[in-house]
Design goal:
169 residues; mainly beta; nine-stranded mixed beta sheet; two-stranded antiparallel ribbon
Length: 169
């Protein structure tokens, strides 16, 4: 066997990954800066939907069914894990208030998944759901699922120019 030439790689850690949000200031345009960090997020789900397969099998097939790729289905409300704190509760109430105001103006909420040492970030529009009660177990950190319904395709674009900490109004 001949020599195998391999490209070098730099593996990424989850340390420092941020989930942030911004609201459109111009209807239909993704914000490029001033994203706000969501405090205490501990898990971000994979968003890699596969297209449905449309069966196109005919009676000519002898051994296998065949199909063609169809549309991707957007997921229902998806859970983002977070440590439950009063700060998170207050921030989420603020998000829900700002989301209602933006929606009334026909504007959308965008999230950015920002990974340290990457020049691009993942962006998509979402609709947040109000917080419920977190599950509580003995000897554990109280955590809660933040439900965000993805409403657009994912865009991999230049990372936001700034991600700021949330501050109570």
């Amino acid at each position: 066997m001949g020599t195998i030439k391999r490209a070098s790689r730099i593996d990424l850690s989850t340390a420092g990954v941020a989930l942030a949000y911004a609201f459109e200031t111009t209807k239909g345009e993704r914000p490029t800066d001033e994203y706000t960090h969501i405090v205490g997020v501990s898990s971000i789900p994979a968003m890699n939907e596969s297209p449905e397969i449309i069966d196109s099998t005919t009676l000519d097939e002898l051994t296998e069914r065949v199909g063609v790729a169809g549309l991707k289905g957007l997921p229902s409300a998806t859970a983002f894990g977070a440590n439950y704190t009063e700060q998170l509760q207050n921030q989420w109430e603020d998000i829900m208030t700002k989301f209602a105001a933006a929606k009334a103006e026909g504007k959308r909420m965008w999230v950015a998944v920002v990974i340290p040492n990457m020049t691009k970030a993942f962006y998509y529009t979402v609709e947040p759901s109000p917080l419920g009660q977190p599950g509580i177990d003995v000897g554990a950190v109280i955590s809660i699922d933040l439900y965000l319904t993805k409403t657009s395709e994912i865009q991999l674009e230049t990372a936001p120019t700034s991600v700021v900490a949330w501050e109570a109004a």
